[in-house]
Inverse folding.
C-alpha cells in the first residue's frame, strides 16, 4: 500500500517547532522568529518535496529522513546547516548542496544514488553516510579525497561493497579516514592497504606536491609584485623600462645593425638598468620605513584605545553598582514623594555619566587624531623625499637618452656619407640609407618616443605614490571618525536604556 | 627466628652500652683518645724521613724570618697534632673528594663545615694555636678551632678542584668570636636596608690583634671568576677587600706555604694574590711545584719518563710530602645530623635563627626564624618555621604578629590539593585564604578567600572560561567563626553571585558572556557581554524570573550593542532564562560543596595538627648518635675490614660490627632506591605540570614556545625512562649484592669464628 503523500508547508513546520518547545511558558509563539529556530525534525511525514524552508536561515540541524523525497532542493538559504539527514528517501542524484558550506554531517543512506558528485563546496564534511545505495564504481570514491576533514564514512550495502578489495581500496585512498562502516580502522589494516596500493598513492602524492609547489611559486611571485607595487617601483628591477622604451622604434633593426650603434646601445642599457635598480632598491627601503611607521601608528592607536577603554569600564562599573542599588531601593520604596525624588536623582546621575563618557570619548578622539597627524607628516616627508629621488634619477635617464640620441645621430650621419660615397663607387644602393631625411626623421621620432616613455613612468610613480597617501589617510580618518560616531551613539543609546529602566519604575 | 634473635641481641647490647655510659662517666678526652689510638695509622704518631726534613726546613725558615722581621709574629708552621707530633700545616691538608652529590660546590661545603662543628675559641685570642688537629679527628669530635675549620674546608674544596688556600691572619672581633648579632639574617629578604651603620661597632681593645684563620679561593678553577674569602665559621663569602679582615700573615695549600710580604696596615684591601710573585709572597719551599704548574709538570714528567726511563735522576727540588692525614670521608648521615648537639641557635640583627636536625623534633621542625620588632629582641614580630618529613606535608608556617595572621605552606600533593592556607583575624571576623594546585583539581580552583560575608574563588584553565566567582551571603548576626562552622553553613543564605568569564574566541564578542550576576533574592539575572572591537560599552541583558511561570517580553530588558543583531523575540531570552535557572540550582549545590570543603579542610587541619607524625624515610628515624663509640664504628668503611683482621675481636664485638656493616650497606641501598624514586617522581611531576600548562595555553603559544615545549617534553620523558630503568635494575640487583656482601663478611677471618652460633 502506498503511503499518502503530504505537502511540506509552513504550517507543518511550525507545528513541528511548537511541539519541540514547552508551550506553557512561552505565551505567544507568534513572536518566535524563524531565524531563531536551529533544528527541525520532520520524520515519517511522507513528504514529497522539500519546501518552505527559505526563512529558517539559522537552521543548524535538519532531519527529513523516512519521507518520499526524490530531489534535493530548497536548501539554498540554509547556510548555517551542519547536519542534514535525508536517509530513507527516494533520492537518485546528489545535487542542491552548493550553499551548505558549513555542513559536517550528511546522511544519504537508503536512497537510490548511483554516483557521488556535486559536493565540491562541502569543505567541512566530517561524516558521510551513503550506505545502501546503488553505487557501483569503486573509483568514484576518489572523489572524496578532496574532503580533508572527513573521518567517518559509511558505504555498506552498495553494489561495489561485495568486491574483494573494497575495504582496502577505500582505506588506501582516504588516508585521513578513522572509521569505515562503523568500524574503527586499525593500523594493521591501514598498513596493509597502503602497501597494496603504494605505487598509485605515491604517484598521486607526487602530482599533488608538484601542483602545490607550482601554486606556491605563483603566489610568491604575486606577493612580490604586490610588494613592489606598494613601493611604487614595480618592474624597475631589470631592463623592463629600457625595453619598453625601444619597443616601438622605427627602423630599429636597421639602425642597430650600423656598426658602433650596438655598443652604444649596450652601454646605454647598462647605465639605464643601473639607475633603475638604484631607484628600485631605494623604493623598497622607503616602503619598509613607511611600513614601520604605520605599524607604530597602529600599535600606539591600540594602546590609546585600550587605555580609554579601561577608564570607561571603570566609570561604567562604578555607575552600574550605584544604579543597581538605586533600582533595588526604588522597588522597595512605596511612598510616592521619596520615589520621585530618587528617580530624579537617578536621571541626574545618568546625565552625569553621559557627560563623563563623552568627555573621555572626546579626549580619546583628539588623541587618536593627533597620532594620525604625526604619522601623516612623517609619511608625507617620506613620499616627498622619494619623489625627489625618483625625479633626479629620471632626469639622469633623460640625459642619458639625449646623449645616446646625439651619438647615434652622429654615427648614422657618418655612415650615410660613407654609404653615399661607396654607392657611387660600387653602384650598390640600399634604399634605406639613400633617404637621409627619412632616417633622421625616424631617429627623432624614436627619441621623442623614448622620452615620452620615461616621463610616463615617472608620472605613474609620482601619481601612484601621492594617491596612495591620500587614499590611505582618508581611510584611516574615516575609520576613526566612524568608530567615534558609533561610540557616541552607543553612549546615547545606553543612557536611553538606563532612563527607560527608571521610567519603568515610575 | 633470626630476626627475633637479632633484635634480642640488639636489645641486650643497648642495655649494656647504657650501663657502660652510666657507670663510667669518663672524661670525654680519654674516650676519644682511646679511639684515636685505635684508629690512627702510623702516620699520625710518627714522622717519616721526608717529614723530618720538611720540619727542619720549616725551622730554619722560622729562624731566618724571626731575624729578618723581628716585629712580626712568628708563623704557624709546625703545630702539634692530636697525637702530640709536630706536623707541617700544609701536610695537614688532604684534598679529599667526598663523592657526595650534596657537596659539589663551595657553597655546600662551606655551609656543611660551618654547620657540622662547633667552635672552640682561641685562648688567648691574640695568639696562634699550639695544636692543629687533623680534619679526620675534628670531624669525629665535632669541635674545632678556626684553624681546624679552615683546614677541613680547604681540604674539601681542594678535593673538588677549587684553587683554595688556608689564610692565617687577623679579623674583627665579631668574626673571630662568631658573633653575628649585628648582621642581617641571610634567610630574610634583604629588602629592608634601613639604618645602615646607624649603630657603630663598639671599640674593640684587641682590634687588629685577634688571630683568625679562613679560606681563600682564587679565580681560575671551578668556574670562579673572582678571588674571594670564605669565613669557615659561617660559610659566608666575602670579597678580598672586605673590611672584616684586617691582615694576612701567610697562606698555604697542600703544595706550599707562602708568607705575605705586602703591607697590611689598611686591612686586606690592597692585597694582591699573585702567589708566584716572590716580591709579594715568600714561599717556604723555593721552586716547589705550584698548583698552576701541577698538571703540566706531571705531564712533562710522564713524557720524560717515556723518553728516558733511567737517567731521570736530576737534582730535584724538595717537594711537599704527601699528607699524613688519612682520606677524609663524610657520610650521608653527617649531612643530615648537621648541628653538633642536634640544634643550633644563632642570633642575628633583630632576629633569631634556630636550627634542628631532622627527626629531632617530633613535629618535624627543622628551622625556626624569629624576627623582632626592636633591637633588643624583646617583642616578637614574625615567627617563621620550616618543617620536614611531616605526614601532613606542612613545609612552612609563618605566624605574623603584626598582621595577626597565620600562614601555612604545604608540599605539592597533599589532601584537597591544598598548597597554602592563611588565617587572618580582622576586626570584622576571620578571613581565610587558601590556595590549591588548580590543575589537579577537577574544578580547577586555584584560590579561595573566605571573609565573614563573602566568598571569592579564582579558577585557572577551565573549559567553560570561568575564572572568578564571588558569593555574597546575608550577614549572619554575630556568628563566631570556628565554633559555629557547622551551623553557619546550614544557615547560609546567598544574596548575590557574581561570575566572570574569559573571552571565548569561538563566539562573537557580543554573544560571549563576560559577567553573570545572580541576584538571588530578587529573582533576577544580569548578563554582561564582552566588548566588541572599538566599542566601550558592553551589551547587557537583564532577565527577571517570571511570576507564576508565565514568561513574557516584560521579563527581559536588553541593551544591544550590535545594531545589526537579530530582532528581539521571545524564544531566545526564554531559552537563556531557562538555562540560567538551571545554572542557579547547580550553583547553589556548588557553593554548598565549597563551604563543606572549607569546613572539611579546617577540621582536617585541626586533626592533623593534633597527631603530627613524621614520614619514616630510612629505618626507624635515625636517632641522633650521641654515643661516640658506636658512631665511630658505624663510620668504618667496609673496605677497612682488613685493618680489623689484625685485631683480635671478641665474639660480641665481631657480631656487632658484622651487623653494623650489613645495616650500613642496607641503608645505602635503600637511600639509593629512595633517591631514584624521588627523582622519578620529581621528573614525572614536572612533566605533568608542563603538560597541563601546555594544554591550557597551547592556543596562544608562539611557535618558539611550542618548540621549546616539545624539547622539554622529550628530554623529560627520556629522563623519566632512564630513571625508571635504573630503579628497576637497582631493585633487581640490591638483593643479590646484599647477599654477596653477607657471604663475604661471613667468610672474613675476623668474623668467621664468631658467627657460628
Amino acid at each position: 500500500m502506498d503511503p499518502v503523500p503530504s505537502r511540506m508547508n509552513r504550517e507543518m513546520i511550525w507545528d513541528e517547532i511548537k511541539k519541540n518547545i514547552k508551550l506553557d511558558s512561552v505565551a505567544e509563539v507568534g513572536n518566535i522568529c524563524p531565524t531563531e529556530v536551529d533544528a527541525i525534525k520532520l520524520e515519517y511525514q511522507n513528504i514529497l518535496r522539500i519546501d518552505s524552508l527559505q526563512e529558517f536561515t539559522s537552521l543548524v540541524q535538519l532531519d527529513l529522513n523516512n519521507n518520499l523525497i526524490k530531489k534535493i532542493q530548497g536548501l539554498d538559504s540554509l547556510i548555517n546547516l551542519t547536519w542534514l539527514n535525508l536517509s530513507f528517501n527516494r533520492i537518485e542524484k546528489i545535487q542542491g548542496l552548493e550553499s551548505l558550506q558549513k555542513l559536517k554531517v550528511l546522511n544519504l543512506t537508503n536512497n537510490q544514488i548511483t554516483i557521488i558528485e556535486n559536493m565540491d563546496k562541502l569543505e567541512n564534511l566530517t561524516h558521510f553516510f551513503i550506505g545502501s545505495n546503488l553505487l557501483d564504481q569503486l573509483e568514484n570514491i576518489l572523489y572524496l579525497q578532496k574532503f580533508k576533514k572527513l573521518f567517518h564514512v559509511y558505504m555498506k550495502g552498495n553494489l561495489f561493497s561485495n568486491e574483494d578489495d573494497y575495504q582496502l581500496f577505500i582505506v588506501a585512498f582516504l588516508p585521513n579516514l578513522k572509521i569505515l562502516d562503523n568500524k574503527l580502522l586499525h593500523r594493521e589494516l591501514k598498513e596493509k592497504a597502503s602497501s597494496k596500493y603504494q605505487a598509485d598513492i605515491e604517484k598521486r602524492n607526487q602530482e599533488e606536491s608538484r601542483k602545490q609547489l607550482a601554486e606556491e611559486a605563483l603566489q610568491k611571485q604575486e606577493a612580490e609584485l604586490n610588494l613592489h607595487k606598494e613601493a611604487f617601483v614595480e618592474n624597475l628591477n631589470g631592463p623592463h623600462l629600457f625595453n619598453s622604451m625601444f619597443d616601438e622604434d622605427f627602423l630599429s633593426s636597421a639602425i642597430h645593425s650600423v656598426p658602433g650603434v650596438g655598443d652604444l646601445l649596450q652601454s646605454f642599457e647598462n647605465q639605464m638598468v643601473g639607475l633603475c635598480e638604484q631607484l628600485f632598491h631605494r623604493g623598497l627601503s622607503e616602503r619598509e620605513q613607511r611600513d614601520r611607521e604605520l605599524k607604530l601608528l597602529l600599535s600606539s592607536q591600540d594602546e590609546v584605545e585600550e587605555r580609554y577603554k579601561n577608564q570607561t569600564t571603570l566609570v561604567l562599573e562604578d555607575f552600574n553598582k550605584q544604579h543597581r542599588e538605586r533600582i533595588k531601593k526604588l522597588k522597595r520604596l512605596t511612598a510616592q514623594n521619596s520615589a520621585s525624588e530618587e528617580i530624579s536623582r537617578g536621571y541626574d546621575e545618568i546625565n552625569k555619566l553621559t557627560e563623563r563618557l563623552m568627555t573621555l570619548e572626546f579626549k580619546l578622539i583628539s588623541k587618536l587624531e593627533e597620532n594620525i597627524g604625526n604619522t601623516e607628516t612623517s609619511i608625507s616627508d617620506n613620499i616627498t623625499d622619494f619623489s625627489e629621488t625618483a625625479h633626479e634619477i629620471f632626469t639622469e635617464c633623460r640625459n642619458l637618452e639625449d646623449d645616446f640620441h646625439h651619438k647615434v645621430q652622429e654615427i648614422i650621419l657618418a655612415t650615410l656619407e660613407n654609404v653615399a660615397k661607396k654607392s657611387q663607387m660600387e653602384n650598390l644602393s640600399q634604399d634605406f640609407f639613400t633617404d637621409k631625411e627619412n632616417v633622421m626623421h625616424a631617429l627623432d621620432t624614436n627619441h621623442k618616443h623614448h622620452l615620452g616613455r620615461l616621463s610616463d613612468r615617472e608620472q605613474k610613480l609620482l601619481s601612484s605614490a601621492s594617491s596612495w597617501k591620500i587614499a590611505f589617510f582618508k581611510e584611516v580618518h574615516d575609520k576613526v571618525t566612524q568608530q567615534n560616531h558609533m561610540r557616541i551613539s552607543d553612549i546615547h543609546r545606553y543612557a536611553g536604556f538606563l532612563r527607560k529602566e527608571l521610567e519603568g519604575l515610575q | 627466628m633470626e630476626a627475633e634473635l637479632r633484635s634480642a641481641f640488639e636489645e641486650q647490647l643497648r642495655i649494656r652500652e647504657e650501663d657502660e655510659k652510666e657507670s663510667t662517666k669518663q672524661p670525654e678526652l680519654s674516650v676519644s683518645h682511646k679511639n684515636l689510638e685505635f684508629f690512627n695509622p702510623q702516620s699520625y704518631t710518627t714522622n717519616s724521613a721526608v717529614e723530618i726534613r720538611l720540619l727542619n726546613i720549616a725551622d730554619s725558615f722560622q729562624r731566618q724570618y724571626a731575624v729578618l722581621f723581628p716585629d712580626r709574629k712568628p708563623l704557624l708552621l709546625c703545630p702539634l697534632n692530636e697525637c702530640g707530633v709536630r706536623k707541617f700545616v700544609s701536610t695537614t691538608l688532604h684534598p679529599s673528594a667526598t663523592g657526595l652529590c650534596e657537596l659539589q660546590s663551595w657553597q655546600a661545603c662551606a655551609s656543611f663545615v660551618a654547620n657540622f662543628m662547633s667552635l672552640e675559641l682561641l685562648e688567648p685570642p691574640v695568639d696562634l694555636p699550639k695544636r692543629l688537629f687533623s680534619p679526620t679527628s675534628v670531624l669525629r669530635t665535632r669541635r674545632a678551632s678556626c684553624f681546624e675549620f679552615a683546614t677541613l674546608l680547604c681540604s674539601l674544596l681542594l678535593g673538588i678542584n677549587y684553587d683554595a688556600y688556608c689564610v692565617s691572619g687577623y679579623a674583627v672581633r665579631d668574626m673571630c668570636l662568631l658573633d653575628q648579632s649585628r648582621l642581617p639574617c641571610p634567610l630574610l629578604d634583604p629588602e629592608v636596608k634601613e639604618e645602615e651603620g646607624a649603630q657603630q661597632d663598639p671599640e674593640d681593645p684587641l682590634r687588629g690583634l685577634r688571630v683568625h684563620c679562613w679560606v681563600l679561593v682564587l679565580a681560575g678553577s671551578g668556574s670562579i671568576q673572582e678571588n674571594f674569602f670564605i669565613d669557615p665559621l659561617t660559610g659566608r663569602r666575602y670579597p678580598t677587600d672586605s673590611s672584616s679582615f684586617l691582615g694576612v700573615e701567610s697562606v698555604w695549600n697542600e703544595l706550599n706555604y707562602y708568607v705575605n710580604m705586602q703591607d697590611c696596615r689598611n686591612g686586606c684591601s690592597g692585597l694582591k694574590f699573585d702567589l708566584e710573585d716572590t716580591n709579594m709572597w715568600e714561599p717556604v719551599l723555593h721552586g716547589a711545584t705550584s698548583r698552576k704548574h701541577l698538571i703540566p709538570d706531571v705531564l712533562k714528567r710522564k713524557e720524560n719518563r717515556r723518553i728516558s726511563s733511567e737517567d731521570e735522576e736530576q737534582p730535584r727540588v724538595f717537594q711537599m710530602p704527601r699528607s699524613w692525614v688519612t682520606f677524609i670521608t663524610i657520610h650521608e648521615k653527617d649531612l643530615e645530623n648537621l648541628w653538633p648537639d642536634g640544634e643550633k641557635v644563632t642570633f642575628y640583627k633583630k632576629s633569631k635563627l634556630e636550627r634542628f636536625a631532622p627527626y629531632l623534633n617530633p613535629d618535624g621542625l627543622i628551622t625556626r626564624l624569629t624576627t623582632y620588632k626592636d633591637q633588643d629582641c624583646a617583642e616578637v614580630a614574625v615567627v617563621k618555621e620550616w618543617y620536614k618529613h611531616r605526614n601532613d606535608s606542612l613545609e612552612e608556617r609563618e605566624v605574623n604578629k603584626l598582621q595577626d595572621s597565620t600562614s601555612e605552606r604545604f608540599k605539592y600533593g597533599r589532601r584537597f590539593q591544598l598548597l597554602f592556607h592563611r588565617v587572618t583575624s580582622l576586626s570584622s571576623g576571620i578571613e581565610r585564604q587558601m590556595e590549591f594546585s588548580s590543575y589537579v583539581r577537577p574544578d580547577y580552583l586555584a584560590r579561595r578567600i573566605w571573609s565573614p560575608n563573602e566568598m571569592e574563588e579564582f579558577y585557572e584553565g577551565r573549559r567553560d572560561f570561568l575564572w572568578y566567582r564571588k558569593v555574597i551571603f546575608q550577614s549572619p548576626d554575630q556568628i563566631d567563626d570556628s565554633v559555629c562552622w557547622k551551623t553557619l553553613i546550614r544557615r547560609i543564605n546567598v544574596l548575590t553571585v557574581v561570575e566572570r568569564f574569559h573571552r571565548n574566541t569561538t563566539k562573537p564578542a557580543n554573544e560571549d558572556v563576560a559577567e553573570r550576576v545572580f541576584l538571588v533574592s530578587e529573582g533576577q539575572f544580569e548578563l554582561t557581554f564582552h566588548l566588541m572591537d572599538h566599542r566601550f560599552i558592553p551589551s547587557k541583558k537583564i532577565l527577571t524570573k517570571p511570576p507564576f511561570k508565565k514568561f513574557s517580553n516584560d521579563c527581559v530588558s536588553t541593551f544591544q550593542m550590535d545594531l545589526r543583531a537579530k530582532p528581539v523575540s521571545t524564544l531566545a531570552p526564554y531559552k537563556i532564562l531557562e538555562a540560567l535557572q538551571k545554572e542557579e540550582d547547580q550553583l547553589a549545590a556548588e557553593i554548598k560543596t565549597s563551604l563543606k570543603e572549607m569546613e572539611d579542610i579546617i577540621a582536617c587541619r585541626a586533626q592533623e595538627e593534633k597527631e603530627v607524625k613524621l614520614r619514616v624515610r630510612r629505618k626507624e628515624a635515625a636517632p641522633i648518635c650521641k654515643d661516640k663509640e658506636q658512631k665511630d664504628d658505624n663510620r668504618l668503611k667496609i673496605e677497612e675490614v682488613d685493618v680489623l683482621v689484625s685485631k683480635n675481636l671478641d665474639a660480641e664485638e665481631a657480631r656487632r660490627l658484622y651487623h653494623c656493616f650489613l645495616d650500613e650497606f642496607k641503608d645505602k641501598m635503600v637511600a639509593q632506591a629512595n633517591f631514584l624514586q624521588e627523582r622519578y617522581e620529581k621528573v614525572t611531576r614536572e612533566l605533568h605540570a608542563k603538560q597541563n600548562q601546555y594544554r591550557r595555553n597551547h592556543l596562544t603559544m608562539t611557535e618558539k614556545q611550542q618548540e621549546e615545549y616539545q624539547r622539554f617534553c622529550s628530554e623529560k620523558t627520556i629522563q623519566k625512562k632512564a630513571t625508571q630503568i635504573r630503579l628497576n635494575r637497582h631493585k633487581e640487583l640490591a638483593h643479590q649484592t646484599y647477599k654477596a656482601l653477607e657471604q663475604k663478611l661471613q667468610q672474613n677471618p675476623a668474623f668467621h669464628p664468631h658467627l657460628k652460633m
